[in-house]
Amino acid sequence: MLTNYSDNPRPALKPPGYPTTPDESGWKSPFQRASWGSRGGSPPGGPKAD
Q: Cβ distance 45 to 26 under 8 Å?
C-alpha cells in the first residue's frame, strides 16, 4: 500500500474517514495496531503488550 492520498503529506496509515481518536493503548486504532503487529514492528505510541 503506497501513499495514495495526495492531500496527505505523510504516508497513509489509515483509510479516509477512519476514526483517529486514540484508544486506551494510546495508538490511533486497533486496526493500525494490528497492522503494525502483523509486520512485527511497534507503533510510535507503543503496544500495550511489551
A: yes
Task: Give the Cα separation of 44 and 39 in Å (integer).
Answer: 14
- What pLDDT shows up at residue 45? 59
The label of the residue with cell 481518536 reads: 21
Q: What is the pLDDT of residues 8-39, one digit of tens each?
A: 555 556 555 555 555 545 555 566 556 655 55
Scanning 1-50, the segments in alpha helix (DSSP H) are 30-38
Q: Which of 30, 27, 4 is nearest to 15 (CA)?
A: 4
Distance between CA atoms of 5 and 12, rounded to whole angstroms?
Answer: 7
17 φ/ψ sector (left φ>0, alpha ψ -120 to 50, else beta)? left
